[in-house]
Amino acid sequence: MIVSKTKTGEKISSEEYYPFEANLDWLSDLENVSTNRRARFVEHFSTIPSPHVVPAPGALIDHVQKQHASTNTIMHALYMYYFLGLNRLSIARLFHKSQSTVSNWIARYEQSGGYERRRSASEQGFTQEQRLWIVAFYQKNPTAFLDEAKYAFECEFQRHIALSTVWSIIHRHGLTWKVLERRAMHIKESDVLRFCSELTSIN
Questions:
Q1: Sign of dihedral through CA atoms 67, 68, 71, 72?
Q2: DSSP secondary structure letter of residue 174
C-alpha cells in the first residue's frame, strides 16, 4: 500500500485514492481467460495443414481422385503443360491425378485437337440433331426435370432415351444444375421486367 499526500496535506492511502488497485483478482482472471483462448486458438490452427504440406487423404482428396476431371480442369492442365512449361508429373500432383491420366489428356489433344472425353456408348446412338434438341429444350426450360425432358424427347423423335443419357448430354454441353439455376433466375427476372414494361405502356 502506498501512502501519499493530497494538495491539502492530508495523507491518503492508494486503496482509498485508487480503489480498483486494492483488488487485482480481475486482472489475473483476465490473464487466465486470455491464456485459455490463446491455447484453444493454437490447438485449432495447429490441426490445419500448411499449404506446403500435402494433407492426409480424406473425403475431399478421395472425391477428387475418383471423379472424372471436368473439361475445365483438363483445359487448365493443358494450359500448364503448353504455356507454363510444367511437366506431366507436376500437373498430376497439382490435380491429384495419375501421371498416365495427364499423359492421356495431352495425347488426346495432340491427336484430335480436342480435350473432351469420348462419348459414352449410350450417347453414340443419338444424332447431333437429337443431342442439340435436348440442349435447346433445357435452354428454353431450365427448371424442367429429367423425366420431363425424356418424355418430350420421346414424343418428338418416337424413340426411347434413358434419364442418365439426358443428364450426360446436357452436362457435356456445360448445362450443370448451377448454370440452369442461374438461367432460370435470369428468365424470371426478364419476365418481371417485361411485365413492368407492359404496365408502363398501358398507362
A1: positive
A2: T
Q: List Cα–Cα distances, 62 to 66, 68, 72, 96, 105, in angstroms.
A: 6, 12, 19, 9, 21
164 half-sphere exposure, CB direction, 13 A CA radius: 5
Q: Provide the pLDDT for residue 52.
A: 46
SS3 content of the chain, % helix, strand, coil (to 5): 65, 5, 30
Query: For the residues of 102-148, what is the DSSP string, one character each?
Result: HHHHHHHHHHHS--SPPPPHHHHTS-HHHHHHHHHHHHH-TT--HHH
Whether CATH 3.90.1530 fits 59-112: no
Is the CB of residue 106 less than 8 Å from the CB of residue 149? Answer: no
- 2's CB contacts (< 8 A; 6+ apart) are 13, 14
CB-based contact 53:63 (threshold 8 Å): no
Grid cell, residue 171, equals 452436362
Q: Which three three-digit cell numbers place residue 35?
A: 491464456
For residue range 168-185, what is the model confidence (pLDDT) as tens digits? 788 777 766 565 566 556
Supply the pTM of this predicted model: 0.35
